Amino acid sequence: MEGKSRMRFLPYDHMDSLPNVIVDGARAEHTVLTLSHWPKSGTPVELKADTSAEIVFNYLDSPRLHVQAEVVSNNHFDEDGLVGIFAMLMPAIAEHHRDLLVDVAQAGDFGIFSDRQAAQIVFTLSAYADADTSPLPGSLFTQPYAERAAELYVRLLDILPRLLTNLHDYRSLWESEDEKLSASEALIDQGVVTIEELPDLDLAVIRMPEDLVSRRVHRFTHQRLAACHPFALHNRTRCTRLVVLQGRRVEVQYRYEGWVQMISRRAAPRVDLSDLANELNHEEGAEGRWVFDGVDQITPRLHLEGSAETSIPAETIVKRVEHHLRTGRPAWNPYDGSDSA
């Protein structure tokens, strides 16, 4: 690999008629190659991998598959996309840090990591992308999403090499969330938060104390509230279907692995839980209404809107979830053509 690629990054909406490579997102009109684990991406089968970043490394390892294009882009900003585009632009540096960069991509997309540094880099990137914590100018976060995403790529492609070698310099940006992750890991280790796996259903039932306080964390560079950090949970179970119980608060989650084209393993196919939502609504005595986000959402949930707590016993809901997952038909297939079997 050469020290620097001949490619350049351009915002997704500014590529005009230039032949381009899309990393991690959806192809554009003049895209000549898509390097993405997204559903039906059309990525060459020889290059496929769990993350788009790994797909890019496979591409760089395969000169016979290289295409004539000088522009690389993506239609959204996240860690996997950032790592993949960085590898396209700076292949020699990326190769030197390959294992860590792939770990960063996995942490960003799936909430799993081998090296704690990968999680800390993700927390740093999330802090940069969060208007509440970012050192970047506040005006960036008033821009429309497309412009904001493009500017985040420009800024963070420059910062990423420094995170790989001098992460301690950015401690003020990652330390707080890293402490939340450690606290969540301790709760699991102590048995305060428990994970019961049902491997035949690719399902994990997670039970948390009712008084465990939700705190701000990040997933896909966005803020959310969680009583137990999702990185702690995802790193302890491979199951891609989760039922989270906290007293009378119940939520069913499909992990991101079920939306994309996983190669190392396949998540159990997503089942449409709309019928279960309707079933629960007939019995719900609380003010809220059960809603399923839809199998086509990246991390859909079955959850109660309008009320924090359900009137239905939590363990009853767990049994209903098990039944619907066991008997429901697959309703989502992200795989291309011959890979879909």
Structure description:
- The protein is α/β, with parallel strands linked by helices and 341 residues long.
- It has 2 domains: 8-170, no CATH class; 175-340, no CATH class.
- The chain has 10 helices and 12 strands.
- The chain has helices at 52-60, 79-89, 91-96, 98-110, 116-129, 145-165, 171-189, 230-234, 274-283, 314-327, and strands at residues 8-9, 20-23, 31-35, 71-73, 194-198, 203-208, 215-219, 222-226, 241-246, 249-254, 289-292, 301-305.
- The strands form 3 sheets. A 6-stranded mixed beta sheet has the order 5-6-9-10-12-11.
- A hairpin with a 2-residue loop joins strand 9 (241-246) and strand 10.
- Helix 5 packs antiparallel against helix 6.
- The mean pLDDT is 96.
SSE topology:
Layout: E1 8-9, E2 20-23, E3 31-35, H1 52-60, E4 71-73, H2 79-89, H3 91-96, H4 98-110, H5 116-129, H6 145-165, H7 171-189, E5 194-198, E6 203-208, E7 215-219, E8 222-226, H8 230-234, E9 241-246, E10 249-254, H9 274-283, E11 289-292, E12 301-305, H10 314-327
Parallel strand pairs: 1-4, 2-3, 2-4, 6-9
Antiparallel strand pairs: 5-6, 7-8, 9-10, 10-12, 11-12
Helix pairs in contact: 1-2, 1-4, 2-4, 2-6, 4-5, 5-6, 5-7
